Amino acid sequence: MLIITILLEAGWSLAVTKIGAAFAASIILIGASFGISKIGVEALGTIARQPEAAGDVRSNMIVSSALIEGVAFFAIVVCLLVLFL
Question: Which residue ranges form the domains of the chain, and what is each CATH number?
Fold first, then answer.
């Protein structure tokens, strides 16, 4: 009887871990998409006010978006490691 209880608890723990990893990955992706959209909105507003600075703003926007995507990718990898290890 004790072995069945341990196995059921282990199965429950695994299910909760999978749900938690999926929830964490979705929160990460929502945050990253919000950050990138915020960068895009602010960059377009800046370019509309100062068209001569479009090149500098565009390059800074691309670097910032790449950094946000890198952090999001790293966080998803961590979620996958938690899930499978």
Answer: 2-84 (1.20.20.10)
